[in-house]
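Consider a concrete sample entry:
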Amino acid sequence: MKPVKTLLASIIIGSLTTISLPTFATAPDDLAFKVSDKPLTLDIHFHTKKYVYDNEWPVEKEAARLTNVHLNNVASMATTKSEESFNLLIASGDLPDVVGGSAIRDNVNRYGPEGAFIPMNDLIDKYAPHIKAFFDKNPEIRSSILAADGNIYYIPYLPDGKFGRGYFIRKDWLNKLNLEVPNTIDELHDVLVAFRDNDPNGNGEKDEVPLFMRNWEELIRMVTLWGGRMSGSDMFHDFYVDKGTMAHGYVGAGYKEGIKNLAKWYKEGLIDAEVFTRGSRSREYLLSNNLGGMTHDWFASTAGYNDSLAKTVPGFQFRAMLPPISTNGKRVEEHRRAKVKVEGWSMSFNNKNPIETMKYFDFYFTEEGRRLANFGIEGVNYDMIDGKPIFKKEMLEKDTPLNAQLWEIGSQIPRGFYQDHAYELQWSNKFALEGVNMYDKEETANGLLVEPFLGVALNEKEKATFDKNWATIRDYMLEMQQAWILGSRDIDADWDSYMAQVERMGYSDVLKVMQSAYDRAYK
């Protein structure tokens, strides 16, 4: 008797309620994912700051059932620092078949050319048709992961979607003060002044914090309103590419003008006085206490306060708004979801089964493997409804955040896979979705995003120049940046000496090696 896959579902689409019987046997088409005739076990060192690879993850077991390849964890949580964990591993010389998790790209691109990791260019071409198709469609991503010798040493974690963060403003405060959503920089300034002076929280005290940020970098990102740039890669923060030429955000005329105006707003009391020190708790504290007026933050989590504070802050409305029109007459949202991350996985020189490993990596780029990596197991964590994976109602209604539930089963971990943004949209509330849709429409109609710099791999000589100079240059830039914002120094008075000092510290040398690496990878 042939294996039969039995599935019975009763679906109520409106409530996303499903009743499913589990799969009892392997379907014939499941055999298409087998990469080895005999069961194959590959040792893996997979480390993140929160967890290591777990042999008992349901997703691992399902992948093993489908592919006949089982991954066996050899990493430990003796340290929560992935860089330290990798350094201990490489120092031992005893590398397992697969090395993955955090701190991968820069390390494998450094040690791969020395022979520690297997180049995958030919393996991808011959044995990974789905990965190859992805890179053919996205050549800039392929370029971004190349090592200095032109080889691919890791398969990256690839986020999906465009917009991750946006501006949010207290719509209830605007309504109370008879104000409109600000459309220009001047209108934004006037709204923040009104938030400061006109007691929108109604407690009779001048305690409102008109503009706040959980991360001070989000404040500096606002230099885009005055023509500045801040976009950067995971490794090379705040570098960007302008028509094929490398540049850095902290030296441009738009940056100077932006910092000058942000310093003015800070002096006027429009920006949180503790913006550099309050940290990640600022959003929770300022919104819960009805003090915060506006921010720039993640759509999903920020919009969630409309639900969580509905009972404790009467009339609370924290809604997304488009970026105000900048001085160049255009709206700009510089933050976008990364196209490629430094996380992923690779093959070490000890791997005796590179073909099977490559086919296993490719499995997660198939439709079935991608669903497994994003949503978990069909019939257990999600059901297919109208051709789309929809999470079970019980998962969406649990107190535990959905992404945390998925980590617990081995989904949405930073293996080499292509994320599906639909997973996040399902646990985003209507206000988050309204914000994302608003930004999407503006992007389609007028353009909103700026293209991010995806990063480069430096060769040994370039890296020596970069490491020698950049850390001290950036420390100096950040020191001056904070001094200008807080008002202890004046950017107009300092600018010429600042630029001269940056140059003396080796800025042009750093830019030169960055340009060399960029030209090698992308041109």
